[in-house]
Amino acid sequence: MSRRTRRTRRAAPVSALALAAAAALAGCATTDASEAGSTDAVPTTVTVFAAASLANVFDSLAERFEATHPDVDIVLSSGGSGALAQQIVAGAPADVFASSAEAPMDTVVDARLAASPTVFATNTLELVVPAGNPAGVAGLDDLGRAELRVALCDVSVPCGAATSDLLEREGVTAAPDTLEADVTSVVTKVMLGEVDAAVVYRTDVIAAGDAVEGIEVPGAASVVNRYPIAVMADAASPGSAAEFVAFVTGADGRAALDAAGFGAP
Amino acid sequence: MTAASSRSSRRRIAHSAGRLAWPIAVMAAAALALLVLPLLALVLRAPWADLPGLLVRESVLQALVLSFGTALAATALCLVLGVPLAAVLARASGWPTLPRRLLRAAVTVPLVLPPVVGGIALLQLLGRRGLVGGVLEDAFGITVPFTTGAVVVAQVFVALPFLVFAVEGSLRSANRRTELAAATLGASRWQVFRHVTLPLVAPGVAAGAVLCFSRALGEFGATITFAGSLPGVTRTLPIASYLAMQSDPDEAIALALLLLAVSIAVLVGLRDRWLPGVRA
Predict the structure, then answer these.
(1) I want to staple B182 with a disulfide (CB 3.0 to 4.6 A). Which of A72, A217, B187, B200 is the partner?
(2) Whole-angstrom Cα Rg for chain A
(3) Interior angle at CA A140, CA A134 and CA A141, nearest 5
(4) What is this model's ipTM?
């Protein structure tokens, strides 16, 4: 549901057009000038499919990458990792895929659309309640209270698989009122106060800010989601795509991921 | 203009009266392909061998029962509320312009609104922190979102206009003289409506109810936003199909086929009664 597509440098196509026109004009004079112009002029678009939980941090990473790579335009599409993987298998034009778990990446690798993904971040789960904790939620056991409104991720998406794993380990039987298709829908329902408690990633609690409160739960450290990233085999511009992946997995990416609450691989 | 060119243009006119210009035929074929090919692909690519097994899965049966139950309840509610609204709308032609247009717009908006917007709006009204929902929760302990009732409310919101406009159309074309005759013979307004008007517009009501049902059955956006997605409670066929697409495309295709089959059954049921006055 929560698919967002953004184009960070709106002005890029226009300036590219102007540059291309300039290059074409220059081409009338000397062939050399036109060739030199064309390599700089056409910005390379790198389409990045990223898990919903990565949307915020990838937004800022994309902006910083573009600042140092003026010839590259990063277009970000975020959603549930499983849905993104299905879209890629069905032929969606992704250059890079960053998944919130290894299973959706495996789907893409099995379809021979990516090879050797790198795990670049980890995430753990937390209880989350609306600001002020109106229902007085203290721990995972409260998820079983019938009078509470509880939202969880559906087990078919990575955050749901992790949640069900965590609840099983802790011996908790939850009584959810809704099982959402991606983690951002769960966070939204908490922010709106429509549910009393939910289980989401630590990073979502940080990103939601003052509208919610996170409650650390014992056992969360033993259920770790590993985030793989890979350049797609049929990427239109594999060079730029690989550079972006290197940026995410490098020191700059690490710092941004740390700040957002992601663990190191 | 020369004689030759005028002769050729006359020929063109005679020619085009019988047949369409080729670009129109090509575009029409493309339009038809766009409508038919995806559904054909769905049918051709379906895992037919596994279909019986897929369709009796508990998750599928649960969604099927819930979808039919809620869509029937929504249709019943639409009939109870929508037929009177259609009656008001049909009489509104005598009203001043502004209220008449506002009334018509109010009924039309859900028809053209993206259903997700409807879901967000329903949350603002009936959500726990909504205008009315907050009062309901504090005073009576009733929470509407995430209940089967919320699914029905979302379906009524999107499906009601279909029923209202179908019934209104047949009310307008119904013969008023029969109603007048009944009234002259001493029938009360209620008796006239119940025994004369309603039987007259019955085919329109039936067509409207079938359209309303199929729209309610297909509801997705408002439902997932307002009612959530819990198996057996709020996870209807379209939501189950969307979720299955994330992990089990075969199940998603099976669910999609099920919805397609129901839609075709509805179409066959309607036959030429698409809408009163529009007969194929």
Answers:
(1) B187
(2) 21
(3) 90
(4) 0.72
**Of residues B174, B168, B195, B152, the one with CA closest to residue B88:** B168
Query: Residue A125 corresponds to which tokens in the numbers above?
Result: 């789960």
The A212-215 sheet, strands edge to edge:
A178-180, A150-153, A197-201, A125-130, A212-215
* pLDDT digits 0-9 by tens, B230-246: 999 999 999 999 888 87
Convert the pLDDT of each residue in A167-203 to its tens digit: 999 999 999 999 998 888 899 999 999 999 999 999 9
Dihedral of CA A214/A218/A221/A222: which sign? negative
Q: State the number of CA atoms in the 13 A half-sphere of B142 facing the CB.
A: 11
Q: Does pTM top 0.80 for this prediction?
A: no
Instruction: Choose among A83, A178, A192: nearest Cβ to B245.
Output: A83
In chain B, residues with a C-beta closer than 8 Å to the C-beta of A79 are: none
What residues contact A1, with CB distance under 8 A and at least 6 apart? A79, A181, A182, A185, B224
Among the partner-chain residues A83, A149, A176, the one whose CB lies closest to the CB of B246 is: A83
Residues of A (136-165) whose Cβ lies below 8 Å from B: 149, 151, 154, 156-157
Question: How would you classify residue B278: left for phi > 0, otherwise alpha for psi between -120 and 50, otherwise beta?
Answer: beta
Is A181 at the interface with chain B, CB within 8 A? Answer: yes
A residues 62-81 closer than 8 Å to B (CB): 80
From B279's Cα to the closest Cα of chain A, the distance in A is: 38
Q: Give the mutation candidate from B122, B230, B233, B248 for the A interface (greatest A CB count, under 10 A).
A: B230
Cβ–Cβ gap A192/B129 under 8 Å: yes
> Can you give the pLDDT at residue A6?
47
- Taking alpha carbons only, the member of B228, B219, B226 closest to residue A152 is B228
For residue A197, give the H/E element and its range.
strand A197-201
Q: Give per-residue pLDDT as tens, A236-261.
A: 889 999 999 999 999 999 999 999 99
Residue A144 in this model has a pLDDT that exceeds 90: yes
**What's the confidence (pLDDT) of residue B4?**
52
